[in-house]
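Quick one:
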Amino acid sequence: MTPLRLWPRPFQGHVRRVWGVRGRATATAVTVVALALVAGGLLLLLLLQSSLIATSESTAKNKAADVAALIASQDVSEAGQSLADTARSGQYVQIINPQGAVVASSERSTATTPLSDLRPGPGETKTDSVSSLQSIEDTDEFLIVASGVQTDAGTYTVIVASTVQVQADSVSTVAWFLLGATPLLLVVVGFAVWFLVGRSLRQVERIRGQVDHIDASRLGERVEVPATNDEIHRLALTMNTMLEKLQASDGEQRRFVSDASHELRSPLATISAGLEIAAADPSGYTWRELQGMLSGETARMRYLVDDLLTLAKANDGGIHIIARDVDLDDVLAAEIRRLRPLSPHAISASLVPARVTGDAQRLGQVLRNVLENANRHAKSSIAIELASGSDGVVVVIDNDGDPVPAADRERIFERFVRLDESRSRESGGSGLGLAIAAGIMSAHHGTITATQAPSGNCRFELHLPSGNGQPIPGLR
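Output:
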């Protein structure tokens, strides 16, 4: 037996792509409208038929009640006379005596044979539907109403036969009209949806084409925003926002590569020149003279590469944080003890016990970077204060150097930023320390800000949430 073969998935995807949004929207709209028209048409026909039949039945019952009232109030002959006077087309009325014979009729054709076998009791009314009246050879559909009336001579029966063929023909005409109008309406709906969706998608296609035209060399271009204040308008705004972010990211990446290359060029050039000079001296004396300098440049380049890796991890959220309860006062005291013998400045500290949740090694790296920055730019003194409160832990590090200008207090935490000559690489800074500190603080859900102390000195403030034995969300 030959096994059944199914269409492969690529073909199914091709069919889906061929339909497209425009085709699917049109097909969906036409299908929904068609179903609505069918359901609504059927409901309309049922309601129309029910209403027409109810009207015919009500008319027949009223006629039977009027004739019965005449029989009861006057006599049969008077009622029979009124039948001829009030006869109407499509309606037959008979008066049947207690013996079953026709004593009066609205039409001569119905004067001999009863139109129905219905014989209700006095005051009762019965109805019946027949496909034709064989006694008069009328093939229309009829609704028959029979009412009983009591007289001295016995129970008479009033029979009213009303044709319902007109009502059936009306329902049929409406049905054919709906059947003929539905395809035309579906064509109109399909064309309208196809046109409107296509018109909307032209805006999307225009935006797609403009975005597709933008490459790395055209990141400054923007998508034209239509003045429609609708979804297309918001899509264009979102695309422009995304392009702005891409442009900013690309510019930041280019600056990073340029700055990193510039920073690495100096130690590499020094090491290369030193090696060439040492290699030209067979005595080895030059090598011994340059060994310290070359080792220093090698260490400087290693530290720079380590800082770049740390900063890259911080920007990607990839810094490995070991979250534990940390006595921040102990970490800060250790960094102050490390700095004191290396600094020519007077260092004062005011510490209180403070516990935070985080990585002690990374927090120590933050404090070390900020303290080294203060040591490089201080004139004569550095003041450190650690305070703890209900809103968290605050570390304030002041130095009597010039404060960071207000316009640069956010930019200073960017990579390779040096604000003046005193912040050059000759002073020992790579321009990465504060950027690394900001990245690590962000990973700890803390902040670091540059500001000015009330005394006019340069100040850095570090804010961390207090440790309470509960892990901080996002820390590992």
